[in-house]
Design brief:
Elements: H1 3-12, H2 15-38, H3 41-45, H4 60-67, H5 71-74, H6 77-81, H7 87-106, H8 118-131, H9 133-139, H10 147-153, H11 158-161, H12 192-202
Helix pairs in contact: 8-9
Length: 203
């Protein structure tokens, strides 16, 4: 639609039609905002608190094992799982990865034991090398090859030898029982008055 046609369409709309369109736009924006609030989207994009990861229950064993590991004292989830080249890459990756995980969760497409994809593997290994530069470049030479070079030329990646750092062995909701007892599961974002209405409608 050309600009001239758009302006003439706008002029042809009656006053009440403009009001209806504004109200509908407000309702849509409000519902999108409520949906993002219920998903706790602000905790993913803005914060660095690892407890945001357990908004999704399937991450409970990973949070529990991380919180009892040596990395639990010095590193957050984002230290290992998000690239650190610059702020644009950092927040862009967080947004992309968060939306992907949300889509998996809403579609019930997540695995019982999630496995890192290639891009995630590259980010994690780059961060292993970034944090342990002196160890793996001066004392040993493993950190001189990045993830993509390892994939092309063969050889081991960090977690081939250090699979139990920092999440223990293969984790899933079934292989790490009672993990929810050691994680700070967030309270429900649904207001109490609405919870009351929902519970009374179930009876």
């Amino acid at each position: 639609m050309k600009l001239k046609e758009l302006l003439s369409f706008k002029d042809r709309l009656l006053y009440w039609q403009k009001i209806v369109l504004l109200v509908l736009a407000g309702v849509v924006c409000g519902l999108v905002g409520l949906f993002m609030y219920l998903l706790r989207a602000h905790t993913y994009f803005i914060g660095d608190n690892p407890s945001a990861c357990v908004n999704c229950h399937i991450m409970t064993p990973y949070y529990a094992t991380w919180s009892h590991s040596s990395h639990g004292r010095d590193a957050t989830c984002n230290d290992c799982h998000v690239p650190h080249q610059n702020l644009a890459v950092y927040y862009g990756f967080k947004a992309m990865d968060g939306l992907k995980h949300t889509a998996y969760f809403l579609a019930h497409a997540e695995r019982q034991a999630p496995k890192a994809e290639d891009l995630t593997g590259q980010v994690v290994m780059d961060n292993c090398i970034r944090c342990h530069t002196q160890l793996n470049q001066e004392f040993v030479t493993t950190g001189r090859k990045g993830y993509m070079q390892q994939q092309r030329e063969g050889g081991k990646v960090c977690w081939d030898c250090h699979r139990n750092v920092p999440h223990g062995g293969m984790n899933s909701l079934m292989s790490t029982p009672n993990a929810e007892g050691v994680t700070p599961l967030p309270p429900s974002p649904v207001p109490e008055w609405l919870q009351g209405l929902l519970s009374s409608s179930d009876k």
